[in-house]
Specification:
single chain; Rossmann fold; 50% helix
């Protein structure tokens, strides 16, 4: 799907989780749309490759190896971005990890790792970004990439869902705090996207075969949602459109939805066993 011809000339966009997947494609799309891009992730070598591609697209790119779960590192990252470009106009909070497991056997250490990145990492970035954007004459906008799994918990992604539920709640609370200010915040809620994370989940023993790979959405769909959220200051964008509404309606009959989801998982597992 071709992205709308939205331009972000002269804007500075900071993207976390920019070394692969949604973050990488978002960074390159903003680069092609005329923005300066600040690429943030832990893997310096992979960031350097993305930065090279962004520069080839005509952008000014700054790669900053950062662990978003470390608040001090995040604040230092924002300072470097501002020192280079003068301000940060858009932040895409995309860094995330997924460690599948049934809740019954979920290792608390794995849940803590997901919370450290998916929730606390996003919090550190939001806090640093809001402080910076409030000091800018034209404010700024934050786009938090959560998940449809943050609207409805299901196994074996209970821990991941928990972290994304929390991120959604945190984002909605911040949005109310910023009413009337020049700083805005949006939620983008993707379903299953064609990324290395999805590939990992499809081969993990606890989650293999639960979702047909052929139904994975292209990353362009999520990039389009991020572009729309940033340009139009939308409160929430689900990918695909309407996905979050379906999950909210399912909340009206949670017991029936539980039975349906369990049945679908059982069918997927039986299909997977037959393939092997």
């Amino acid at each position: 799907m071709q992205l709308p011809a939205l331009r972000f000339d002269g804007k500075t966009v900071l993207i976390t989780g920019a070394s692969s997947g949604i973050g990488r494609e978002t960074a390159l799309a903003f680069a092609r749309a005329g923005a300066n891009v600040v690429l943030v992730a832990r893997r310096a070598a992979e960031l350097a490759k993305v930065a090279t591609k962004a520069r080839a697209a005509g952008a000014v790119a700054l790669a900053i190896a950062t662990d978003v779960s470390n608040a001090t590192s995040v604040r230092a990252c924002l300072r470097k971005a501002v020192a280079r470009f003068g301000q940060v106009d858009i932040v895409v909070n995309n860094a995330g990890i997924m460690l599948p497991s049934p809740v019954e056997t979920l290792d608390p250490a794995d849940l803590q790792r997901m919370l450290d990145v998916n929730l606390f990492g996003a919090l550190h970035v939001m806090q640093a970004a809001v402080k910076q954007m409030r000091s800018q004459a034209d404010g700024g906008h934050i786009v938090n990439v959560a998940s449809l799994a943050g609207r409805r918990g299901f196994s074996p992604l209970g821990g991941y869902s928990a972290s994304k539920f929390a991120l959604i709640g945190l984002t909605e609370a911040l949005r109310t705090e910023l009413v009337g200010e020049k700083v805005g915040v949006s939620l983008v809620l993707p379903g299953v996207v064609e990324t290395p994370m999805a590939d990992m989940a499809n081969t993990h023993p606890d989650s293999a075969g639960l979702w047909p790979k052929a139904l994975n959405m292209p990353t362009d769909w999520v990039v389009w949602a991020i572009f729309a959220a940033a340009r139009l200051k939308l409160a929430e964008v689900a990918v695909p459109p309407g996905g979050a509404l379906i999950e909210k309606l399912a909340a009206l009959a949670p017991g029936a939805t539980d039975v349906f989801l369990r049945g679908m998982m059982d069918i997927a597992r039986r299909t997977q066993r037959r393939r092997h």
